[in-house]
């Protein structure tokens, strides 16, 4: 039986993950002084989420936002192809890749890739239906998003409501295992995208700092998984992540050596391939 501590911590964490859905679209529209005001609002919302959750794990959006600020270009080929969605048959693979596609959605939205945004919304919708979270995901959600791609405020509201309902549904239904797998898939994909961009960027000091700062998040993921290891899928994913965690254990502060980066890149590539294949 899962402890009340585990349930409370998961609830807080899921609220933090919601920050990705809320603020991702807020930086994908506008410019100039209006953009500056929007960025300030984004930071305020992020701080509000953190003050409520007291949970420091970065959302996929936060990682992508840092990449954007570091001047990294959008690389479509880094995303998990939408065609792969038909390959996921188990609850474990569907939940993990719902997280992966959520990170891809954050990536596409932040870089104002409207077609890709819709594509990743649609595959996310399919996985949510397969995982029977449909009560939290309106059937007309994708249509509403498509009709409001240029209406920032309305789009924020649509996505906010849907993601709140989705994660609230998971927690209330006792589907802690699914929520953890979704969270893990999203974090892993954000790290994968970051490492791949670091490899092709000439001036990647800021990007390497983003990677170094993932040490705390992976430790937090292990803290969350530990009370739920009676679930086979969670235990398998935790075992899969142990080599990556061991590599991050050797990272000190915001500095990562070339050798550490090479090993982390290889390991995240290996884990990510196993998840999306």
Strand % is under 5%
Uncertain residue segments: 1-6, 11-36, 45-57
Oligomeric category: single chain
Whole-number tally of structural domains: 1
N to C succession of SSEs: HHHHHHHHHHHH
Query: Could you give the count of β-strands?
Result: 0
User: Helicity level, as a percent range?
Assistant: over 70%
| Mean model confidence by pLDDT | 75
Radius of gyration: 18 Å
Description:
With 277 residues, the chain is mainly α. It has one domain. The protein has helices at 4-24, 32-53, 60-69, 91-110, 114-130, 141-146, 152-172, 176-200, 205-212, 215-225, 232-249, 258-276. Helix 1 packs antiparallel against helix 7, helix 3 (60-69) packs parallel to helix 8 (176-200) and helix 4 (91-110) packs across helix 8. The radius of gyration is 18 Å and the shape is globular. The chain starts with a helix and ends with a helix. Residues 1-6, 11-36 and 45-57 have low confidence and may be disordered.
């Amino acid at each position: 039986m899962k402890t009340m501590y585990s349930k409370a911590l998961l609830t807080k964490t899921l609220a933090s993950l919601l920050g990705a859905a809320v603020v991702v679209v807020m930086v994908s529209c506008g410019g100039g002084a209006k953009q500056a005001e929007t960025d300030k609002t984004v930071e305020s919302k992020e701080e509000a989420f953190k003050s409520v959750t007291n949970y420091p794990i970065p959302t996929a959006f936060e990682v992508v936002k840092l990449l954007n600020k570091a001047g990294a270009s959008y690389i479509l080929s880094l995303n998990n192809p939408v065609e792969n969605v038909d390959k996921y048959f188990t609850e474990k693979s569907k939940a993990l890749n719902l997280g992966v596609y959520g990170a891809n959605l954050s990536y596409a939205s932040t870089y104002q890739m409207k077609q890709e945004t819709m594509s990743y919304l649609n595959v996310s919708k399919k996985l949510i239906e397969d995982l029977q979270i449909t009560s939290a995901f309106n059937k007309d959600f994708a249509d509403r998003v498509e009709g409001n791609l240029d209406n920032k405020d309305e789009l924020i509201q649509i996505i906010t409501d849907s993601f709140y309902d989705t994660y609230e549904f998971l927690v209330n239904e006792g589907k802690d295992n699914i929520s953890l797998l979704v969270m893990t898939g999203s974090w892993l994909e954000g790290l994968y995208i970051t490492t791949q961009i670091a490899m092709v960027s000439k001036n990647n000091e800021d990007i390497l700092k983003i990677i170094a700062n993932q040490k705390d998040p992976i430790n937090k993921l292990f803290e969350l998984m530990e009370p739920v290891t009676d679930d086979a899928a969670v235990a398998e994913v935790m075992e899969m992540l142990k080599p990556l965690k061991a590599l991050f254990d050797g990272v000190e502060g915001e500095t990562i050596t070339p050798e550490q980066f090479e090993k982390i890149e290889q390991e995240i590539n290996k884990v990510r391939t196993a998840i999306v294949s």
